[in-house]
Every structure is written in C-alpha cells, then in structure tokens.
C-alpha cells in the first residue's frame, strides 16, 4: 500500500493495552463513533495521540464532503484501533490517511453529524485544529445549519488552546457581532495584534473589515482596506493579491485600472491554479459582485467552467446556474439543473437553495413548484434556515405562485425559531401588518426592535423605512424616529443606513436640513462603489431635493449604478428622457435605455419597452409585438403590467378603444392586489368609457379599492423595502 499523508510518531508501547475497550467499537451507522481513549491510553506519547487525532479529522473531512461510506469508515477505524502492539515497543507507526486506506467514494451523501462526532473525538485528544474544523462547519453552514453562536464557542476554545487561526476568527466574530455580542474594539485589537506579528491573513481580514460592501464592515474606508491588502501582498499572500486586483479593476480605494487589476488576478491563477481567482474573474465579468467591468457573460462562463473543472463547488454551482439561464452560453436548462442537482444530492445546502431558486424563477422556465419546495425543504431539513425564508418568500413574494400568506408566515416563524434574522424580521413585519396572522402592531414592532437593540442593521433599516413612510391606519409616520434608526445603522458601518440618513439630511426630514453634509454621506458611499448610493445620488439630483435640478449628474450617477449591476438605473434614465423637464424630451433615447434595462433582466424596462413599441413612441410602432411584451411581463409576475395593458386598450394609440379588453386586464391586476386597477375600473364604469355607464358597478369597484388600500392587502412582493 502506498503510504500517503504520513503522520509518523515514535511510540513507546511498554505497558499499554493492545486493544481499545469494547465500548469504544465503531457503531454500524452513518454516525460512526470513534473509539474513546481511556485514561491509560492517554499515557501514550503525544506524537501518537496527535497522529490519531489527525486521522480522525481526515475521516471527518471525508464524511463532511460526501466521500466515504459507513463500511469504508469502519475499515479505517478498525485499522486505527489495531495499531497498539505491546510486542513492538520501539516501533515507528505510520498513521495513514483514511483516503489511502479505503479510497474515496464520489457518490456518498454528506454526513455532517458523523463528521462532527469524529471532530469532537479529535478535540478530546487535545486537537485545536479539530475545534477549528467544528467552528468552520457551523460558521460556513454548507452541509449543516449555520450556527454562529456554536461556531464562536468552538473558535474560542481553540484560541485558548493556542491556535492563531482561532484567535483570528474570534477577533472577526467579535468585531462583526457574529455569534457573540459585538465588541468592535476588542475584536480589532485581537486581529491587529496578529497582523503586527506578520500574520498575512490578519491583514487581509482587517482589509475586509474596512472595505465597503463586506458583511459586518466596521467602517467604510476603501483606502485603508487597500493598504492592509498591500501589506499582506508584501508578505507573499496570494489571497490579498486577488483582492488588490479586484479593487484595482473596479477603482475602489485606488485609481481604476481594469487591465492592471485583471492582470494581477490572472497572474495568481496562472501561478497557483487557485479556483478562487477563477470564480472572482467570473464574478467580475458577470457583475455578481458589483464590479464595474463591462458585462461579458461568455468570459464569465469560461472562468466558472474552469473553476468547476478543478472540482471547485462554487464554480460548479455558478456554471450550472449560467447553463440553466443561458448566460454566456446557449441555454441548456436541463444540463444546468442537473449540475445543481448533483451538488444538492451530496447535501450541499447552498446548491439546494440555488436549485430551489432556479425552479421557482418564472423568467427561466415554467415554475416547478413541487420540485422547488422539495429542494428548499431538503435544505431546511439539513438545518439551513435560509431555506425556510425562501419558502416563505415563495408563498408571499413570488407573483407567479399563488399567495398563501398563512403558509408563508408559518415558514417565517420556523426560520425565526431557528435564529434566522431575516425570518425574525419577516415575522415582525407580517405581525405588524396582519398578513398571514392576526394583526398585532405592538408585538410586530417589539420583534423588530429587539433585533435593532442588538444592533442588527437590517432591523434598523426596516424600522427606519416603516417610520419614514408610515402605514396608513396602523403606524404614523415619524421622520425623527426614522432618522434615528438610519443613523444608528450608519454608525454601525451599514451603507444603506448611511445613504438613507444622508437622504433625510438633504431633504430635512426628521433632522435639520443640511444639504452639504447629507450629500457628503451619500457621495462617500457612492464613491466607494455602492450601487444603492449611486441610485440615491441620481434621485437627489433629478428631483431637486438639493435645491436645483441636475439631470446630467443624475444620468451619470445612474449610468455608474447600471455598470455596477443595477439595470433599474437604466429605467430611471429612460424616465428622465421620456418625461423631460430639466432636459429636453427624447423618446428615442428613453426607448434605448428601457431596451438595455430589459436585456439586463429588468422587468420594468421590458414593460416600458413593450408599451412604447405598442404606441410607436421612440421606435417604430408594432402593436402586436408591444402588447405581447407587456403580457409577458404580466405573466412573469408583475401585476402592474396588466394595468398598463388596460391603459393601452383605452388610449386609442393602438386602435379603437376596447373597453371589454381593458376591463379584463384591470381585473387581472386587481386580483393580484393592485388597488389602482380597481380605481380605474370604477372610473371606466362611472364615465362609460368603452363600456356602458354603470354607477352601481363603479361604486362597488371604488369600495373594493378602499379595502385594497388596507396594508393587510399589500400585493405580493410589495412589502416594505429596506
């Protein structure tokens, strides 16, 4: 047998029993329990104990990654149990890798529970690395439910055992408030101490904490982040060079130089064959990470495919998604779906969720509701609470699936009970609005405020949005309170909080009007590469909030946001040219921007394009093609498309007024919660436009519109935005 991955230990065996006790035998179940070392066995030399612990960790890795079977694992454990040999006290024993002992299986399901037991046994032997494995398992949440609190406990134990890697994770989780109460100062101090000792990974982490857009960012300072990465690069750390390349390419913290940035990343990939670099390049060219490089799905697919060919799971996942959606390559829905299913069948919860997303997306293929639900359910059964949130969204926010608010609420409750922050927010919001459950404004607010009190930025932003706009009859608008929530979110380093607080300062809402300082907040986030900030800046320039209309700057801001992956910014530019005002009306330009937005996947852009095509506005008139495009948007789940369709039938722009067709379109929109469609129906029968005047029918529609304006009747997908 080839002896690979050797951990050699010089073992003095005098006086040591030959076999482990019967209680220590492996169980014949997936959750294999390794032999428990008795006190007399613990007297063995440290080298032997460490070697056996390493073997248990390697076997745990195989279980974690779905590369072993129960039979194979038991064979490996039997080998390790048989190592003791009192007749050869001076022998040197080779602890052989489980994969060399038994080979690997590519078809075995992941078994995180068996992996956990093996890691725990190795930890009991004093292995800090095993504690790290356990922390990683619960932090990453790929094959077991993410549990930050449990992850922090394991990292903390490993740190106390002397692991620098664990100290780094402890510092990070303290700084970000993940799994433990946030203590930014203490967390940064731990990380900085490691960085000062020459730990390159600590320098990269410091960069991540100051880089805009990162999860748990402590402050937005791209120049500072770039400097930390630069120091790590000087230590030869390739992960830092990838980040430097990305920031150089997108102009974050340094002057933008796309070619130089891409070249840096390509150099690392060529030298190290690092699939993370390939995934990064794919993301840059498909803008899934908010880059500012022109979209090139073909290039992106090529990079993801190369990463997939190296066995990288993220590469496989992205390749499958692009195949199924026809991005960068001819669409092959079944082939892409099969790639995602292959990962999902091995218990990869990220793949299960991605598969559910694909199966429930009406823009790719007809929704396969049973299969989507089954995929999400399997991820949920593996403990991934994000899948429960997806299930709730499926029944409350997906226009192509019949809304079942009580069912959606039950999923959100389960996610909330599992500790999922988004689930808790959804429960609070639906309880406040009385959607899918009895309305209880106080309980709903209490749920969200509990999260806000813990510093959760999404809760702070949601509460800010609720109090900024109010909810008719339920919650009075309170701009001062809204500004307070957004300010707290901004203080925690959240970009959205900073942008919203800046907007309110510019407009003098809830705080003293201060155009200069408010714009500075928004511009800082925009300059750091936040597409949301660029959208905000464009709006402030276009609506006169600053005291003047600056349509050219608005267009520039929206263009930058569009390059950052926001096709709705193209719609905003189209609206500027279509409506005119500060700049001349230009229907041709408006149509072109709507067309670009539609090509980038924005349904509103497609809707505007269809409407203008039907009317012959800014383009050659093609009534049939325009109406068909409007109907497609409606079928994809946007009920407003049916309002537009009704308006077209009454406009006279596509032929004679067709009252019955308008009624049918408005009724379709009304069934999906559009109160404005009910108002149009009332007007239509009141005025007798295209149909016989009927005051009684008009009154009925107006009363329905009043009921539909109640917050509990919010249309699917139109919950509070934050």
UniProtKB/TrEMBL annotation:
SMART domains on file: SEL1
Superkingdom of the organism of origin: Bacteria
Keyword Signal: yes
Keywords: Signal
Pfam family, one: Sel1
Coiled-coil segments on the chain, per record: none
Gene3D superfamilies: Tetratricopeptide repeat domain
Signal sequence range: 1-20
Protein name, per record: TPR repeat protein
Species this chain originates from: Aminobacter niigataensis
């Amino acid at each position: 047998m080839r002896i690979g991955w050797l951990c050699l230990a010089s073992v003095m065996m005098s006086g040591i029993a030959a076999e482990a006790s019967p209680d220590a035998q492996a169980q014949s179940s997936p959750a294999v329990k390794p032999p428990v070392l008795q006190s007399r066995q613990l007297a063995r030399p440290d080298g032997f104990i460490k070697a056996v612990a390493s073997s248990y960790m390697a076997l745990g890795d195989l279980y974690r990654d779905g590369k072993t079977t129960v039979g194979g694992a038991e064979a490996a454990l039997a080998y390790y149990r048989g190592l003791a040999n009192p007749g050869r006290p001076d022998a040197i024993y080779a602890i052989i890798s489980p994969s060399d002992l038994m080979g690997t299986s590519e078809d075995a399901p992941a078994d995180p529970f068996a992996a956990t037991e093996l890691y725990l046994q190795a930890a009991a032997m004093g292995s800090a690395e095993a504690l790290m494995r356990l922390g990683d398992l619960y932090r990453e949440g790929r094959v077991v439910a993410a549990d930050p609190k449990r992850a922090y406990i394991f990292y903390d134990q490993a740190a106390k055992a002397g692991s620098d890697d664990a100290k780094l994770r402890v510092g990070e989780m303290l700084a970000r408030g993940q799994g433990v109460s946030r203590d930014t100062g203490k967390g940064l101090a731990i990380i900085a101490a490691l960085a000062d000792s020459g730990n390159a990974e600590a320098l990269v982490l410091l960069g991540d904490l100051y880089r805009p857009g990162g999860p748990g960012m402590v402050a937005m300072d791209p120049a500072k982040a770039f400097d930390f990465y630069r120091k790590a690069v000087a230590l030869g750390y390739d992960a830092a060079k990838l980040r430097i390349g990305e920031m150089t390419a997108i102009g974050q913290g340094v002057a933008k130089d796309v070619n130089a940035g891409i070249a840096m990343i390509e150099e690392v990939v060529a030298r190290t064959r690092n699939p993370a670099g390939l995934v990064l390049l794919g993301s840059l060219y498909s803008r899934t990470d908010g880059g500012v490089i022109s979209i090139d799905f073909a290039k992106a697919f090529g990079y993801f495919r190369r990463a997939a060919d190296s066995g990288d799971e993220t590469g496989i996942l992205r390749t499958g998604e692009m195949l199924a959606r026809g991005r960068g390559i001819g669409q092959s829905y079944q082939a892409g779906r099969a790639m995602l299913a292959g990962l999902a069948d091995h218990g990869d919860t990220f793949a299960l969720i991605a598969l559910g997303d694909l199966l429930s997306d009406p823009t790719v293929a007809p929704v396969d509701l049973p299969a989507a639900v089954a995929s999400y359910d399997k991820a949920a059964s593996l403990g991934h609470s994000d899948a429960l949130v997806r299930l709730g969204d499926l029944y409350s926010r997906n226009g192509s699936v019949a809304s079942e608010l009580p069912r959606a609420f039950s999923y959100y409750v389960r996610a909330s009970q599992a500790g999922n922050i988004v689930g808790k927010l959804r429960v609070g919001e639906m309880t406040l609005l009385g959607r899918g459950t009895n309305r209880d404004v106080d309980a709903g607010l209490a749920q969200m405020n509990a999260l806000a009190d813990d510093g959760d930025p999404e809760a702070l932003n949601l509460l800010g949005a609720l109090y900024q706009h109010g909810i008719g009859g339920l919650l009075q608008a309170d701009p001062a309170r809204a500004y307070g929530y957004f300010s707290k979110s901004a203080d925690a380093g959240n970009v959205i909080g900073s942008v919203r607080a800046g907007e309110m300062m510019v407009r003098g809402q809830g705080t003293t009007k201060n155009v200069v300082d408010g714009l500075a907040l928004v511009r800082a986030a925009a300059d750091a590469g936040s597409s949301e900030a660029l959208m905000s800046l464009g709006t402030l320039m276009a609506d006169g909030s600053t005291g003047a209309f600056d349509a050219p700057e608005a267009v520039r801001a929206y263009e930058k946001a569009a390059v950052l992956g926001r096709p709705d910014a193209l719609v905003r530019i189209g609206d500027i040219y279509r409506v005119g005002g500060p700049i001349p009306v230009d229907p041709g330009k408006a149509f072109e921007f709507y067309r670009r937005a539609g090509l980038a996947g924005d349904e509103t852009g497609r809707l505007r394009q269809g409407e203008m095509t039907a009317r012959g506005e800014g383009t050659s008139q093609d009534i049939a093609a325009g109406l068909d495009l409007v109907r497609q948007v409606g079928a994809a789940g946007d009920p407003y498309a049916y309002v537009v369709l009704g308006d077209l039938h009454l406009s006279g722009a596509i032929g004679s007024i067709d009252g019955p067709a308008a009624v049918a379109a408005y009724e379709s929109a009304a069934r999906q919660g559009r109160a404005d469609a009910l108002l149009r129906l009332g007007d239509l029968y009141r005025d007798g436009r295209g149909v016989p005047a009927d005051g009684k029918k008009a009154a009925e529609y107006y009363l329905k519109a009043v009921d539909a304006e109640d917050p509990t009747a919010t249309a699917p997908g139109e919950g509070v935005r934050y």
